[in-house]
Structures are given as structure tokens and as C-alpha cells.
Design a protein that fits this description.
CATH architecture of the largest domain in chain A: 3-Layer(aba) Sandwich
Number of strands of chain B: 0
Order of helices and strands of chain A: EEEHEEHEHHHHHEHEHEEHHHEE
Chains: A alpha/beta, B mainly alpha, C alpha/beta
Number of helices of chain A: 12
Helix content of chain B: 55-70%
Number of domains of chain B: 1
CATH topology of the largest domain in chain A: Rossmann fold
Number of domains of chain A: 2
Oligomer: heterotrimer
Strand content of chain B: under 5%
Order of helices and strands of chain B: HHHHHHHHHHHHH
Structural class of chain B: mainly alpha
CATH architecture of chain B: Orthogonal Bundle
Chain lengths: 360, 317, 345
């Protein structure tokens, strides 16, 4: 694949779930692309639709309750209209997934080796012995000490960090072009999280894998993402390069989220006082009862435009990264397509004081 | 950061009357007592609802049996013996010319009384033992539960027969015998449920504010451990009615000439080819009662399941 | 220390028997959840207790209130020995010390209304006589934590996580405690709600003059709310000191690694920064390494680390203590025992 060609193109993805409380619009028109070697972070709180949006991509939502519309091209093939058999092939070979809890994504009664070998053989005509040596190689690649021995161990014999490495090895076993990490480090301690992030970044550089990193942790995002997409109430409320979104947030929700974070690097006042956090009051809207106007309106401290309450703001460009500037997308080296000039967009009517104004 | 002031949440309570959709409290249904909620959930389950109505009917019949029954239990009309069902005797008459409808009605109170007494005994004693064993654990658990295991390992009918042999036949002793047989079941169900609840954080939270064991047991553990016990009660009632019938059938329970469904079944056995109605109607009464208790038990199991509760409560809105 | 200390632990140990099972239930080993902790909580301060999962920070918090029985050492609360309290003394101690738990969905009894939950301490300790007075007090408490008193009659399942946590805080405050232990009180909440609860706890601490022990794995949150920070590793406090010192210039290599691993929401800083990535995993608390317990992962390990169990000693800023031989070899030499290697008493 040529550098810069998008691995995944999502267009106007919508997910509606049938719930006892009525239809819930969990994802409402999400569009983004992931390039080879690029990391796109999808950020949001619980209920923002960030996890559902990727489950929908891979056809992992039960068809009985979920209606998925839109387009999602994985290397040119639409995942949403794909035949179930083909989709099963694509999961794994085309797109690997790493979930939050490594214990539940591994089968507790099968050895690590068996689970890896199964995945490898399901997607290619490989002999058992070859698959086993490939499995050991994968485990070595994800930094498991004694990979040969680990093949014969059961998941419960490994620590949380080691289990997550095994899950990553399984996800990467068929060299997918896309890796989806859904809160992959949330259950891990920070020192282990640092190891896993290093690991994924290294593997990504090596293989040119596109990564969708779903998380609620803006700190993790700052470290790994090229681009950030902030979700709220099933909508993308802001997207852009990681520097634009985190350093010059345009949407009141993004600003509120950043203000909610206790910051280790925050300057301490003259009396040694750490300033109070600017918390967002209230709670996210239930997906069964989304507000008519801006999704953030009920909690918004700004509300500077009369349209906020009644009219949904479109995702519009608020600023353009300076041409040739140090946009985040080039940091990892692989993605050099549209990344450098990537627009910074936000879905808000209130944009004054954003351009040039940096936070902190 | 932008300078727009964000209201301090501590000073602006999350009132339910906030802006639309800000607070889930606003969108949720008003608080209702749990028992009423359980009842309304039960009403949404047609099978359980029908079963409850039928059971209520049976209980009413049992309570007002003397008024409802057309004849007395032992009004002997030798001339009318072994008559098949007719307008005058809808369920027919038995070998002594007694009206079977009246005897089924009057037998209801005997059967149900034994059932309720037996299950009541097992419920009180078994729940207490299970509660203590589950909460205190260690040697309390060992001693109480080994004793329960001993009772449980004994063949049920043999145990009941032994109790009746010692204390003599009669409905009171039948109830006691059945009650003893069912005690270990309640003890086990309660203990298992308590073991789960005991480890809940809210129990530790209650202890952290200084609550006594008694308070924790009665206010937190018992109410939260109750659902499986309630379901067990309903199902045990069915089995107790059956057991009473079985013991009376064996001649160990209710003694003639008192009417009891099991006894009537036993007495009708000899006439099964000559006059089927002697055994059929008391048999149907047992069948219906047991079925209703079982269906009610199933319905309760669903209604008391918290996951089911949210689902159905949401759907019912 | 003097009358400034409200809660103090000396050589505190909580060991659990592990394994065994079977018929006779003979334990196969010992899990050293808390293994010789010396810690003072000063009156009126917020002490942050950080550490990774399994380091024993929660067990320590529970042991200070005797919710988990200590197996060794002492705890004093306002001058009285907590480990020796009788039933009545323990009850009074629990009035004076409240606890807020991690999971707001599990810490409230689903069958009891908010009012019943919050008034439990009032009933237990006979703090308000009569239903009316108790109801009024519950209203006050709910207002104090930022909830509408009108919600008192509702059940927990009608509330969001953040609101439930406020109810949990109201319950902990009902007995008018001096000491409040928050055990991962914000860990299960969304970021924006975490900030609400952090602000609330800080406000309450000042308004009511509480002494707060804030237990968390989140160094940023701990740094934000605490006056002093204690860092735990494998059942031991390995560094303690003023928040500014421990949070920006830690002296113990483990704290340095922990601090460097915390991701910050600033892309430029994140890209520029050198992380100290520790190798390997935390050893199991049932097989604690001899000598310094951090030596298996420490980048600076040198000769005395194997043989001497380091004690807390002054390092860095005033009031800052670290258990590390880099600041001078101080501690207890180790001797081998049949069941493993332990420090000589």
C-alpha cells in the first residue's frame, strides 16, 4: 500500500439501537479516515457512542437490535454491506481488535498457544507446526519473556499486562492493516500502560498499521494520536490534529473535558494552592432523548448564540493548521497525505476567541 | 482556558427540574415501593397472573369452604352412592354417597393448611439457619450445614414417615413432618444467597458507619437475599401439597373420614374402573394447585430479577 | 510527632492466608497486602495515598478503620489504640471516621432509599431523635453534597454514578466524622464527573475541617487534591512528603517511574518527554523480594539493595522521606527463613 492512502474511510456512520425505552440514536453521522501508519484517537465519555461506533464497523452489534447505516470502506471494501463470511475473514486479517479487559477476551480454558494458532490457521493455509512457530515469534515481538514456554500456559497464569500483550499478539497475528484498540490500557496500571503504548507504537511504525485508539484518557491521546476525534452524544463535536484539539480546543465540551483534568503539570499558585478544576455540571444526554439543537447545550456554560438551543451546528472548519507546520500527523512519519494540512473542525455556533487563542 | 464561568456543581444541585435531559432523575419514573413494583411486573406476565388469580380463588374457596360446599363432608346418602357427575352432584358421589364436589372443596382447606404450615415451618427455621451459617461462616457454618446435610441425605418419605411414626398421624403432624423435610432446602438456598450478599460493598459500607451485626442482617442482608427464598417458598408450597397428598394416600397423613385430596385419591383408587370421578376430581385439584404454585414461582423468579426489572419497567412505560 | 497527628500506623501488617483450601483449609502461603507500614495522617490535612493495583493501598485504608483486622503493628486514632478497642469504642471510632467506596453502583443498598441509606449512621449512633429531625438532617446532608433534598425518597438505580457517589459521601459525613477515607472514590466515574467529585471533596474538606485520606491510583488526581502524598509499593510506604515535592521531584526511583508514566494532555510535552519505562511486572505480594522490594525493577539497583530492607529516611525537600539506599544505606538486614526471605525483626 502506498503511504497516505487511507486504510479506512468512514462516511456518515449512524447506529440506532432498539431499547425498551425507545429507539436510541447512539451514533449520529460520523465520518473520518485512518491512513496507513496513522493513529486516530476517538475520545469521549461513557455513553458517547465511541465504542458502539467501532463495534458497528466490524458487524459486532446484534442485528436484532441495531440498525447501522452509512459507508465504511476498509481498503476499498464496504464493511457494512459485506457478506457475513467475508466479514469474518476481514476481522483478523483486515482489522484486529484489542479490548479493555484482557481476561474476558481470552478463553480461560485454552492455552495461549492454542488461541494464537487457531487465529493464524483460520486465515491462511498454514501447517500446525508453522503456525506454532509463528505464534512464538509473535509473542516475542510483543515482548513476552520466554515466548515458547508461554504458548503452553493458560491466561490466568499471566499478569494483566502480559495478557494484554497476548491479546495484541492475537490481533496482529494476521498482519491487519487496521488495529482497533478499545480502551486497551484502561484496566492497566500506568507503568504497564506505558509499556503497552510503547509496544503498539513500535509495532505500528514497523508494519505501517493504521490504529483507531478509543479512550476517555486525554493524556494517552496526547502521547500517541496523530488526529483526535471528540465524541459527545453520538456526534463528532470536534476533530483535528492532536495539537489543534488539545492545545486550541474550539468546542465548549472539549474545553470542559480538558478543564476537568487534574493536571500534574499545572502551575501551582503562589500560596502552593492548586486551582480548582472547571468541572462540567450535569450529565450527558440519554441517547433516547437527544437535545434538538447542539448536543452539549444542556450542560454548556457558553450558549453564546440563539441557535444553540434549536439548531444543530454543523462540523465546520475553525482554523487551518499552518502549511508545513509541525502538525502531529507527520510525527510518526508514515502518514503524509492530507495530514499536514488537516482542518481543525468543531460543531459549535460559538467560535469566537478560538483562533490563535491557546489554552493554559 | 476560556473565561466563561462554569457553575460549581456543589452549589447548583443536580435538580430533577433542570434543563431537559440534564438529569436522569428527571426522565425516570417516580419512586415506587419495591413490593408494588414486583406486583405490577407479575401482572405483565400473563401465565403468572392467571396462576395467581386461580390460587387466590382456591384460597378463597378453602377459607369459605363451609359456606360454599353444597353438602357436608360426611353427609352419607347410601342410596346415591357412586353416581356419575350430574346437575345435582357435578363431581358425582363416592362409595358412601357423599358429594365429591363438597369433599373437594372441604379438602382444599386441609391440603392448603398442611402446605402452608409445613412451608411456614421450613421457611422460618431454614432461613434462620441459612442466614446464620452464611453470615458468620467458619464453625457456625460447619456445624449448622453439616446437620442440614444429614437431614437432607435422609430419604424424604422415610424421614416424614419416621416423624409421623413417633408423633402419630394427623394433619398437624403431617405439616411438621413435611416442614422438617424441607428445612434443609431453605437453609441451603438462604445460605447461598447470603454468601453472595455478604460480600457486597454496601454491607461493608454499613459496617463502616458502625452498624451492628443484627442491623446488617435484618436491614441489608435479608432483604437482598430474599428473592430466591421467595421463589423457593412458592415452589415448596407445590411440593408440600403433593407431599400431603402422598402421605395421606399412604394412610399416614389425614385420617378418614376427614376429606383431604390425597386421601380421596387413595380411597378412589379401588373404583378407578367402576367410577373414575372418585379419583379424577381430587387429582385435578392437586394438579391445578401444584401447577399454579409452580407457575407463580417462575413468574416471581423473573419479576424479582433486577435485570428483568429494569427491562420490563422500561418497556412498560 | 505530637497532637498534630490524627491517625497513625506503626509497623502495620495485614497478612492474608492464601491457597490451601481443600478439606483442612491449611494455608499454602501468606499474602503480604500491607507489610510494615509507618504512616501519620496529620489533623486537617489531605493525605494522598497512591500506588498501582495490588500494592495494598485499599487494604491499608480499611485496616486503619479496622474494617480489615490488622495482623501486626498498631493503629492509633486520636491517641487511642484502634486495634485494642472494645465493641463500644469501635462503634464510636466508626462514627468519627467515614469511608467513601470506589464503586458507587455497589456501595449503596439497592433496596433502600437514599434517605434510608444516609440516615443509617444517624440511627446507629442515635444522633437525631425522632423521624422529623432525622429527615431534616438527611436533607441538610444531601444539600451539603450538592443533591436536591427532594430526591431522598428515591432508590439508587434512579441515579447516575456521580450522583450515587454524592449519596455515598453524604452517608460518610452523617456521623460528623473527623476523618474521611476515600478509597478510589473517583475511579469508576467519567472524567467530567470526576472533576465534580474532586471539587466537592476539596470543598467539604475545607468547610468541615476534615482530615482526608484520598486513596487512588491516579497520580494527577492525588497531586491535585492532596497536601501530602504517600506512595505505596508492594505493601509498604516507600515515599512520603509534601505534594509539591513528591509530585514533581520524587526521590524514590519507583515514584520517579510512576510520575514519568502518567500521560499528560499536552501533545508537545508528551512527545518531548523521556519516560522511565519499568521492565517486568510487580512481584506478587505473596513472594516479596528480599531487601528492597523494588530492586527487581529498579534501574539503579546496587549492592546493598539485595541485603538491606530500606527504611524511610529524609531525602529531598523538608518533610520528604524515601525508602531508598541511594540516600544512604539505612534499614534492616535480611536473613533467610524457611518460608522465604523476610526482614529480621
Amino acid at each position: 500500500m502506498t503511504a497516505g492512502e487511507p486504510v479506512l474511510e468512514v462516511e456518515d456512520l449512524r447506529v440506532r439501537l432498539r431499547t425498551p425505552r425507545g429507539p436510541a440514536d447512539v451514533v449520529n453521522g460520523l465520518s473520518y479516515t485512518v491512513g496507513a501508519g496513522e493513529t486516530v484517537a476517538v475520545v469521549g465519555e461513557s455513553g458517547s457512542g465511541k465504542s458502539v461506533s467501532v463495534l458497528a464497523l466490524l458487524g459486532l452489534l446484534p442485528a436484532r437490535v441495531a440498525t447501522v447505516t452509512g459507508r465504511a470502506l476498509l481498503q476499498g471494501e464496504d464493511l457494512l454491506t459485506m457478506a457475513p463470511d467475508r466479514l469474518r475473514q476481514v476481522r483478523g486479517a483486515g482489522a484486529g481488535m484489542v479490548f479493555q479487559d484482557p481476561m474476558t477476551s481470552l478463553n480461560p480454558v485454552l492455552t495461549i498457544g492454542r488461541q494464537l494458532v487457531e487465529g493464524i490457521r483460520a486465515h491462511g493455509d498454514v501447517s500446525k507446526a508453522d503456525a506454532r512457530s509463528r505464534a512464538a515469534e509473535l509473542l516475542r515481538e510483543v515482548g513476552l519473556p520466554d515466548p515458547e514456554g508461554a504458548l503452553d500456559r493458560y491466561p490466568h497464569e499471566l499478569s494483566g499486562g502480559m495478557r494484554q500483550r497476548v491479546v495484541i499478539a492475537i490481533a496482529l497475528s494476521n498482519s491487519p492493516s487496521l488495529l482497533i484498540a478499545d480502551e486497551a490500557t484502561t484496566a492497566l496500571d500506568v507503568t504497564v500502560q506505558a509499556q503497552i503504548i510503547d509496544l503498539i507504537e513500535g509495532l505500528q511504525d514497523e508494519h505501517g498499521t493504521g490504529v483507531i485508539w478509543i479512550t476517555h484518557d486525554l493524556g494517552v491521546v496526547a502521547g500517541i494520536a496523530d488526529r483526535v476525534l471528540v465524541m459527545y452524544g453520538g456526534r463528532c463535536v470536534e476533530d483535528g490534529t492532536v495539537d489543534d484539539v488539545l492545545e486550541r480546543p474550539a468546542h465548549p465540551y472539549t474545553r470542559g473535558l480538558l478543564g476537568s483534568l487534574p493536571d500534574l503539570a499545572a502551575p501551582v499558585g503562589p500560596d502552593g494552592e492548586v486551582p480548582e478544576l472547571t468541572a462540567i455540571p450535569g450529565l450527558p444526554p440519554p441517547p433516547t432523548d437527544l437535545p434538538q439543537g447542539c448536543v452539549f447545550w444542556p450542560r454548556c456554560p457558553v450558549r453564546a448564540d440563539p441557535r444553540c438551543e434549536t439548531e444543530q451546528p454543523p462540523l465546520a472548519v475553525v482554523s487551518r493548521a499552518p502549511a508545513g507546520g509541525p502538525a502531529g500527523a507527520t510525527a510518526s512519519g508514515a502518514y503524509t497525505g492530507d495530514g499536514a494540512g488537516l482542518p481543525h473542525r468543531a460543531a459549535t455556533w460559538c467560535t469566537e476567541g478560538v483562533d490563535g487563542g491557546s489554552r493554559g | 482556558m476560556t473565561g466563561a464561568p462554569v457553575p460549581e456543581p456543589g452549589n447548583s444541585p443536580d435538580t430533577p427540574a433542570g434543563a431537559p435531559g440534564t438529569s436522569p432523575v428527571a426522565t425516570l419514573r417516580p419512586a415506587r415501593p419495591r413490593s408494588r413494583e414486583t406486583l405490577s411486573l407479575l401482572a405483565h406476565n400473563p401465565t403468572a397472573a392467571i396462576a395467581s388469580v386461580l390460587l387466590l380463588l382456591i384460597v378463597v374457596v378453602a377459607v369459605f369452604d363451609e359456606t360454599i360446599a353444597p353438602d357436608g363432608a360426611n353427609d352419607i346418602e347410601v342410596a346415591d352412592r357412586l353416581q356419575s357427575p350430574s346437575w345435582e352432584h357435578p363431581f358425582g358421589t363416592d362409595d358412601l354417597g357423599r358429594d365429591i364436589l363438597s369433599r373437594v372443596i372441604l379438602g382444599a382447606s386441609v391440603s392448603l393448611k398442611v402446605g402452608f404450615l409445613a412451608v411456614g415451618f421450613a421457611l422460618v427455621v431454614g432461613t434462620m439457619i441459612g442466614l446464620l451459617a452464611g453470615y458468620y461462616g467458619k464453625w457456625v457454618d460447619d456445624v449448622l450445614m453439616r446437620f442440614m446435610d444429614m437431614l437432607f441425605a435422609f430419604p424424604a418419605v422415610l424421614l416424614a414417615i419416621a416423624v409421623l411414626a413417633v408423633r402419630g398421624p394427623g394433619s398437624g403432624n403431617t405439616a411438621l413432618a413435611i416442614g422438617i423435610v424441607y428445612t434443609p432446602i431453605f437453609a441451603r438456598v438462604t445460605r447461598a444467597s447470603v454468601l453472595g450478599v455478604r460480600e457486597e460493598v454496601y454491607v461493608r459500607a454499613s459496617r463502616s458507619v458502625g452498624a451492628s451485626d443484627w442491623r446488617i442482617l435484618t436491614r441489608h442482608i435479608l432483604p437482598n437475599a430474599a428473592p430466591p427464598i421467595i421463589v423457593q417458598t412458592s415452589i415448596s408450597l407445590a411440593f408440600a401439597v403433593l407431599a400431603e397428598a402422598a402421605l395421606s394416600f399412604l394412610g399416614l397423613g389425614t385420617q378418614p373420614p376427614d376429606p383431604s385430596w390425597g386421601l380421596m385419591l387413595a380411597e378412589g383408587r379401588g373404583y378407578i374402573q367402576l367410577a373414575w370421578w372418585l379419583a379424577f376430581f381430587p387429582g385435578m385439584a392437586i394438579f391445578l394447585t401444584v401447577l399454579c404454585f409452580n407457575l407463580l414461582g417462575d413468574g416471581l423468579r423473573d419479576a424479582l430479577d433486577p435485570r428483568q426489572r429494569t427491562l420490563m419497567a422500561g418497556g412498560g412505560k | 510527632m505530637s497532637e498534630d497527628v490524627l491517625v497513625s500506623a506503626r509497623g502495620l501488617e495485614v497478612h492474608f492466608p492464601v491457597g490451601g483450601g481443600g478439606f483442612r483449609r491449611a494455608p499454602a502461603g501468606v499474602l503480604r497486602a500491607v507489610d510494615g507500614v509507618d504512616l501519620d495522617v496529620l489533623r486537617g490535612e489531605t493525605l494522598g495515598l497512591v500506588g498501582e493495583s495490588g500494592c495494598g493501598k485499599s487494604t491499608l485504608g480499611n485496616a486503619l478503620l479496622r474494617l480489615v483486622p490488622p495482623t501486626g503493628g498498631t493503629v492509633t486514632f486520636d491517641g487511642t489504640d484502634v486495634t485494642a478497642l472494645d465493641r463500644r469504642g469501635l462503634k464510636e471510632m466508626r462514627r468519627r471516621a467515614g469511608m467513601v467506596f470506589q464503586d458507587p453502583f455497589a456501595s449503596l443498598d439497592p433496596r433502600r432509599t437514599v434517605a434510608q441509606t444516609v440516615s443509617e449512621p444517624l440511627e446507629v449512633h442515635g444522633l437525631r431523635s425522632g423521624k422529623r429531625e432525622r429527615a431534616a438532617r438527611v436533607g441538610e446532608l444531601l444539600e451539603l453534597v450538592g443533591l436536591d433534598p427532594a430526591v431522598a425518597g428515591r432508590y439508587p438505580h434512579e441515579f447516575s454514578g456521580g450522583q450515587r457517589q454524592r449519596v455515598g459521601i453524604a452517608r460518610a459525613l452523617a456521623g460528623e466524622p473527623d476523618f474521611l477515607v476515600c478509597d478510589e472514590a473517583i475511579a469508576s466515574l467519567d472524567v467530567s464527573v470526576q472533576a465534580q467529585v474532586l471539587n466537592l471533596l476539596r470543598r467539604l474538606q475545607r468547610q468541615l475541617g476534615l482530615t482526608l485520606l484520598f486513596i487512588s491510583h491516579d497520580l494527577s488526581a492525588v497531586r491535585h487534591i492532596s497536601d501530602r502524598i504517600a506512595v505505596m509499593y508492594l505493601g509498604r510506604v516507600v515515599e512520603v512528603g509534601p505534594a509539591a515535592a513528591v509530585g514533581s521531584a520524587p526521590e524514590m526511583p519507583y515514584t520517579q517511574a510512576l510520575l514519568s508514566a502518567v500521560p499528560l494532555p499536552h501533545p508537545a510535552q508528551e512527545r518531548a518527554r523521556q519516560r522511565i519505562v519499568l521492565t517486568g511486572d510487580v512481584p506478587s505480594p505473596s513472594a516479596v523480594p528480599s531487601g528492597c522490594r523494588f530492586r527487581t525493577r529498579c534501574p539503579y539497583v546496587f549492592e546493598p539493595c539485595d541485603d538491606v530492607d530500606p527504611a524511610l529516611q529524609p531525602a529531598g525537600a523538608p518533610g520528604q522521606l524515601a525508602a531508598c539506599h541511594l540516600h544512604g544505606v539505612v534499614g534492616t538486614p535480611v536473613t533467610a527463613t524457611p518460608e522465604g526471605v523476610t526482614a529480621d525483626p
